UniProtKB/TrEMBL annotation, chain A:
Keywords: ATP-binding, Cell membrane, Membrane, Nucleotide-binding, Translocase, Transport. Belongs to the ABC transporter superfamily. Spermidine/putrescine importer (TC 3.A.1.11.1) family. The complex is composed of two ATP-binding proteins (PotA), two transmembrane proteins (PotB and PotC) and a solute-binding protein (PotD). Pfam families: ABC_tran, TOBE_2. The lineage of its organism: Bacteria, Pseudomonadati, Pseudomonadota, Alphaproteobacteria, Rhodobacterales. This is Spermidine/putrescine import ATP-binding protein PotA.
From TrEMBL, chain B:
This is Spermidine/putrescine ABC transporter. Keywords: Cell membrane, Membrane, Transmembrane, Transmembrane helix, Transport. PANTHER family: PUTRESCINE TRANSPORT SYSTEM PERMEASE PROTEIN POTI (PTHR43848). Belongs to the binding-protein-dependent transport system permease family. CysTW subfamily. The keyword Nucleotide-binding does not apply. One of its GO terms (biological process) is transmembrane transport. InterPro entries: Bact_Polyamine_Transport, MetI-like, MetI-like_sf. It comes from the Bacteria. GO terms for cellular component: plasma membrane. The chain crosses the membrane at residues 9-28, 64-84, 96-119, 126-151, 171-193, 200-218, 230-251. Residues 60-248 form the ABC transmembrane type-1 domain.
């Protein structure tokens, strides 16, 4: 769901070489990035990489040790959290348990000079927007997880912030509810047009929801790109490993002049575009490919690009999909591939020999 | 029941705890100056005698004043300390909180003697205010412990959410934190009140001779003729405690139900 229109929007958030220390612990190590207005942006990374810390520096809950955070062009240094144009949806939702749903949602309007009737109307509208029409009088603690989530959203959005910050808002929900809320969040974001910044450690969630994603490791942004680029052209093995599954095969660089010619185990000689080459040249050389980029060829099918022979080593049947571990001829370990199951086509057995089709354009070279 | 011994142990324990208290009203209504079985008839004379005792009324008024002021001050101090210890990090926090709560295990005798020495050498004359001072010292650690638990059970992000929604630190405290720790505040107040009202050592040491309930009761027990009316007083105090407890429990449960919290059973 890459939204190309966001690229030419103005900057909403800008980080310039942001560092954060907790005592001796270097939690943010030089974050430089910009987030566009109206963008659905995600911070993705493993536990402890600093996602929450970075989000909280935007909200103003965490001071930074050095660097600059700008919101809508304004330096946020010395600006307290309660006056920043941001609102937050907390991981625990932080619904005020002693207040009713409507008191929660209207909490931020307490200081607003608008009339009581206008406030009530705004609350009703916010509740309707998140699908909680008629729940206003309920006690906040008598809500399900998904409903609390919605109350938290309504409470934050009612103030029409420039930026909505969401810290793992879906992690406490079960799988079904999570998927439903993902769709609703996307819809909501499009509807209100507010910049959403989502923290998640779930790569699938980030891919589904975001216009752009910053992948973080150990206090640094490893790659910032749209979901498709992240998936197809991860800039390091680490990013590739974190997002989806990637198979790696050792390779040797034969020559490079614009294009790079490599000899990759199991694939033979391939010529790769400069855009497929990642890394500084200091790491070990390998090629990576996603599971769905290798296709088993059945009777009568021919490859449009390259074709190799392989032996089936493992079969995992998933109903709609089958995962195979295939050992390409000449390779010392198998690659995992995924095939959509099609009616009338057999699932291969372990030990079977098969032809596979692939394309050099789907490979990524890490070095 | 798998362990008959444990069961009888529990029953004996409870009997030992409550049977003497049941004796209070029995003898309070017993028509005899001698506190002993067999009972000799029903009378309300002792209650009348108690009621007519003007010294006792002054003692009760003094003790109530001391207990209410002590409970209020201790709870307020407890709120400050608990909040500072739960929410903020500062240098020397461990030792300081440790020292604040140390009087929990410090013999009251020591507090009383030390305070008396200091007050006298400073030339401060003894009054119910010096008793209050001593009681606050003794009660505050309880308040700190109870309130620390209350503050700890508060999700930190609630406070941040209020702040995030535009409230100041002060209004966040008033609108969010205070209502949510109210059951803890109530517990703290009641515990401090109870400790203060029946405290004897400090009341005896730091008092100026003005009648104080605990000291007065103790003094009257020396005169056998006064014992039955003290039994009547005891009965009134028991009823008062039960009433207070019921009220407190009602508010505690209401607080928990209102916030949807889990009832952990304990009063604290
Ligand atoms: N107040 C703090 N004091 C000291 N260290 C902290 C503090 N807050 C966070 N850290 C440390 O900073 C690092 C980053 O924390 P952060 O909460 O940002 O991680 P995260 O990426 O959000 O992880 P998770 O997915 O587990 O929430 C962690 O190693 C954490 O232990
Ligand atoms: Mg986090």
């Amino acid at each position: 769901m890459t939204n190309t229109a966001t690229t030419d929007r103005p900057d909403m958030i800008e980080f310039r070489d942001v560092h954060k220390y907790y005592g001796d612990y270097h939690a943010l190590r030089g974050i430089t990035a910009t987030i566009k207005a109206g963008e659905f942006f995600s911070l993705l990374g493993p536990s402890g990489c600093g996602k929450t810390t970075l989000l909280r520096t935007i909200a103003g809950f965490e001071s930074i040790s050095s660097g600059v955070v700008l919101i809508d062009g304004k330096n946020m240094e010395g600006v307290a959290a309660n006056v920043r144009p941001t609102n937050m949806v907390f991981q625990s939702y932080a619904i005020f348990p002693h207040l009713s749903v409507e008191e929660n949602v209207g909490f931020g309007l307490r200081r607003d000079p608008m009339s009581k009737a206008d406030k009530a109307k705004a609350v009703a509208e916010a509740l309707e927007m998140v699908g909680l029409k008629g729940y206003g009088k309920r006690a906040a603690h008598a809500l399900s997880g998904g409903q609390r989530q919605r109350v938290a959203l309504a409470r934050a959005l009612i103030l029409k912030p420039k930026v909505l910050l969401l810290d793992e808002p879906l992690s406490a929900l079960d799988k079904k509810m999570r998927e439903q809320m993902q769709v609703e969040l996307i819809r909501l974001q499009r509807q209100v047009g507010i910049t959403f910044i989502l923290v998640t450690h779930d790569q699938e969630e980030a891919l589904v929801m975001s216009d752009r994603i910053a992948v973080m490791f150990e206090g640094q942004i490893a790659q910032l790109a749209d979901p498709e680029t992240l998936y197809r052209r991860p800039n390091s093995r680490k990013v590739a490993d974190f997002i989806g599954t990637m198979n790696f095969m050792p390779a040797k660089i034969l020559s490079e002049n614009g294009k790079v010619e490599v000899e990759a185990m199991g694939f033979g000689r391939v010529e790769l575009d400069a855009s497929q080459v990642m890394g500084s040249g200091s790491g070990e050389v390998s090629v990576g490919l996603r599971p769905e980029t290798l296709t088993i060829l059945f009777e009568g099918q021919t490859a449009t690009d390259r074709e190799s022979m392989a032996t089936v080593e493992e079969v995992v049947y998933y109903g709609d999909m089958t995962y195979y571990d295939l050992r390409l001829d000449g390779a010392d370990h198998p690659v995992r591939i995924s095939m959509r199951n099609v009616f009338g086509r057999p699932v291969l057995d372990i030990g079977a020999r098969t032809r596979v089709a692939w394309s050099p354009g789907a490979l990524v070279l890490f070095r | 029941m798998k362990f008959p011994i444990l069961r009888s142990y529990a029953i004996i324990y409870l009997l030992f705890l409550y049977a003497p208290i049941i004796l209070l009203p029995i003898f309070a209504f017993n028509d005899s100056k001698i506190v002993a079985f067999p009972l000799s008839g029903f009378t309300t004379e002792w209650f009348g005698q108690m009621w007519a005792d003007s010294q006792l009324r002054i003692a009760a008024k003094n003790s109530l004043t001391i207990a209410v002021v002590t409970a209020t001050l201790s709870t307020i101090l407890g709120i400050f300390a608990a909040r500072a210890s739960v929410r903020y990090d500062w240098k020397g926090k461990g030792p300081i909180i440790g020292l604040i709560t140390l009087p929990l295990v410090l013999p009251e005798m020591i507090v009383a003697m030390a305070l008396l020495t200091v007050l006298l050498s400073m030339g401060i004359s003894l009054s119910i205010w010096t008793i209050i001072l001593g009681h606050v010292l003794v009660c505050t650690p309880f308040a700190v412990v109870i309130l620390t638990a209350a503050f700890q059970s508060l999700d930190r992000s609630l406070e941040e959410a209020a702040y995030d929604l535009g409230e100041s630190a002060a209004s966040t405290f008033r609108l969010i934190i205070l209502p949510l720790v109210m059951p803890g505040i109530l517990s703290s107040f009641l515990i401090c009140f109870t400790i203060s009202i029946d405290e004897f050592i400090i009341a005896n040491f730091l008092g100026s001779g003005q009648p104080i309930l605990s000291v007065y009761i103790f003094g009257n027990f020396r005169f056998p003729a006064r014992v039955p009316s003290m039994m009547a007083l005891g009965t009134v105090l028991v009823l008062l405690s039960i009433t207070l407890l019921i009220i407190a429990e009602y508010f505690r449960r209401r607080g928990i139900a209102k916030t949807g919290g889990k009832d952990t059973g304990g009063f604290l």
